[in-house]
Amino acid sequence: EPEVTQTPSHQVTQMGQEVILRCVPISNHLYFYWYRQILGQKVEFLVSFYNNEISEKSEIFDDQFSVERPDGSNFTLKIRSTKLEDSAMYFCASRGQVLQPQHFGDGTRLSIL
Amino acid sequence: QKEVEQNSGPLSVPEGAIASLNCTYSDRVSQSFFWYRQYSGKSPELIMSIYSNGDKEDGRFTAQLNKASQYVSLLIRDSQPSDSATYLCATHDMNRDDKIIFGKGTRLHILP
Question: Tens digit of pLDDT for each residue in B53-108?
């Protein structure tokens, strides 16, 4: 069964550094998402992306965050200057057509020191 | 602010019994409803989706939706120790935005 893959599985970064989280969505999917889950809290929406542009973003997704689909397969989340509170699991998801559910990758655990 | 509410648990159920998980949501126009299972430190895994009022069965799982009461439930029959996990209720409204709103989840513990 096709999967959403994310790399790395764990990223440790010094506060203030830039970090890029990578995702390869399911190949025929058109809609892409990033979510995050702070330890012990609910999964929160960050951003949705369709047709090479952001379709919606949450208030968490401020100017420090950006997303890109640099080629036909990768979907990245960049955090420009990381803060301690960015420590969380980051999940990439993708979806095919309307009403199809979103499928999640295994996540990247981001630890900011 | 759209909300999905769940009892955080833990809900303890003997092995072989029926586990019943409940969820309410605030946004009346939500169209799609999902149950995800999440093991500790892992990603959410979709186990059921339901779009219309009534029951939907898939193996040991039955999802129930009542849009008038803004209520979604998940029944797990013949509970197994491997069912021990956190179950996330989620809603989605494709017409207005494209994000899933998750509840905090209910921790389910199946007692061997």
Answer: 999 999 999 999 999 999 999 999 999 999 999 999 999 876 666 788 999 999 99
B25, two tokens:
């949501």
User: Do residue A43 and residue B88 have CB atoms under 8 angstroms apart?
Assistant: yes
Nearest CB neighbour to B97, from listed A56, A99, A107: A56
Reference B89, options B104, B109, B107, B68; nearest CA is: B104
Count, residues in chain A: 113
Chain B within 8 Å of A91 (Cβ-Cβ)? yes
DSSP secondary structure string for all residues of chain B: ---EE-----EEEETTS-EEEEEEES-TT--EEEEEEE-TTS--EEEEEE-SSEEEEETTEEEEEETTTTEEEEEESS--GGG-EEEEEEEE-TTT---EEEP--EEEEEE-
